[in-house]
Amino acid sequence: MNSVNLNGNINPWQQILSRNRWVLGVWLLLGALLLWYSTLIPVFGEFQVTSITKNSLPLVYLAIGQAIIVIGGGIDLSVGSLLLLGNVIAARFMEDQSSGTVFVIGFGMIIGIGILNGITGYVISVSKIPDIVVTLATSYIWSGMALLILSSPGGGTAPEVRWLFSGSVTGIGGSPIMPIIMLIIPTGLVFLYLNRSQNGLSIYAIGSDHIAARLTGLDVRKAKVLSYAIGGAMASLAGLATVALTGTGDPRFSIGAIATLNSVAAVVLGGVALTGGIGSVLGMVPAAVILIMLNPILSAMGFDPNSAQVVQGILIAAVMMVGGFVTLRRERAA
Question: DSSP string of 237-298?
Fold first, then answer.
């Protein structure tokens, strides 16, 4: 099929495929890995699909939040700490509460943490201090707050919340239907916001060239604040999903640090340029699932946990290098 039809117009499907080649490639890679994984274990069925889907939710949310900030020309080293903060708030205040109270707490937490991170974006915009410096500082602040709220692992949440993210009121087993729904809805809403709203397109604009965006009359500061606010809300949702899956809160800093690194790796693997302005949140879904699948695949291949950790680190580093090379080619082409 030609990319130009008889009327001389460019075929829209060709345009879509051209702009999303990397995202399509990541989805195909995920399909290949799933097929390979199914040959490595004795049985691959609903239980395995449910496990992969629900365990991927926190990283999918976190990667989407990081992607929005990176698309806007920044980077947030505090998203893992925000996940911890959301996790311990949910575990501390949702335990033994009615379902109505639990959902009020959940919505309030998502909005509140979104506002907190929006303030971070405002500080960056006003002070002109690099994102990496400000968010490194705030990562310690949010981690400290998490420890103040819950000094050691504990707490819990309502069965309804566990069912929402895992398809099971106990968080064990369940059906893949609810995790898939909870994957599609936030991803779809953020995708539509970024690609169909003026504010969303402004985030792309400031990531591409914030000076040009300012000269065209766009409110650069507002776009920056919005990108960080949405990123914080998604990190909070990741914390809520984590407590739903584990049934407890955990304020350990190491968990947040690993989550932050994985979110950046997912952003690169998902096709978002670290220089900003390029990429789609749709690539975060397969990228996050791939990163989550590395451990079970390596275990199925016979690697012991220590060796698997080394191999996983090497693979993530390789992903980052490939992503950097692709970004360099894009810049040269531009």
Answer: HHHHHHHHHHSSB---HHHHHHHHHHHHHHHHHTT--TTSS---GGGHHHHHHHHHHHHHHH
pLDDT digit string, tens, across residues 224-245: 999 999 999 999 999 999 999 9
Which of 95, 63, 41 has its CA nearest to residue 286? 63
Take residue 42 and report the two structure tokens written for it. Answer: 């004795």
User: Rounded to whole angstroms, how far apart are CA atoms 45 and 48?
Assistant: 6
Phi, psi at residue 226, to the nearest 5°?
-65, -40
The SS3 assignment for 151 reads coil
Give the ranges where the chain is alpha helix by DSSP (H).
12-19, 21-40, 46-71, 79-94, 99-127, 131-149, 159-166, 177-196, 198-215, 220-246, 253-269, 284-300, 305-333
Pick from 288, 242, 237: nearest CA to 67: 288
Q: How far apart are CA 30 and CA 35, in angstroms?
A: 9
Contact between residue 156 and residue 96 where contact means Cβ atoms under 8 Å apart = yes
**Domain limits, the chain:** 46-333
| 45 Cα distance to chain centroid | 26
- 46-333 has which CATH code? 1.10.3470
Give residue 327's pLDDT.
63
Which own/partner pairs from 125-130 qualify as long-range (CB within 8 Å, at least 24 positions apart)? 125/220, 125/221, 125/224, 125/225, 126/221
Looking at residue 213, what is its pLDDT?
86
Q: Which helix (H) or strand (E) holds 197?
A: none
135 neighbors 77 (Cβ within 8 angstroms): yes
Above 70 in pLDDT, residue 11?
Answer: no
